[in-house]
C-alpha cells in the first residue's frame, strides 16, 4: 500500500500506547472496580500520547 497513512513509526507508537494502557489496567485486574481500571488505562494512554 503506497498511500497508507499507517507508517511504521505510527504503528510503533500505537503499540507503545496500547502497551502502556494494558499494563496500567492489569495492575487493577480482579479488584472489582472496572471503572478504576478503565480510568487507569485512559490516563496511561493520555500520558503516553
What do you see in this structure?
Helices cover 69% and strands 0% of the residues. With 49 residues, the protein is mainly α. The protein has two helices and no strands. The relative contact order is 0.17. The longest helix has 19 residues, at 8-26. Helix 1 (8-26) packs antiparallel against helix 2. It has one domain. The chain is elongated, with a radius of gyration of 14 Å. It has helices at residues 8-26, 34-48.
Q: What number is the mean pLDDT? A: 94
Q: Which structural class is indicated by helix and strand composition?
A: mainly alpha
Strand content: under 5%
Supply the number of helical segments: 2
Total beta-strand segments: 0
Write the layout of secondary structure elements.
Blueprint: H1 8-26, H2 34-48
Helix pairs in contact: 1-2
Short description:
One of its GO terms (cellular component) is cytosol. The chain is mainly α.
Describe this protein with a few key phrases.
49 residues; elongated; mainly alpha
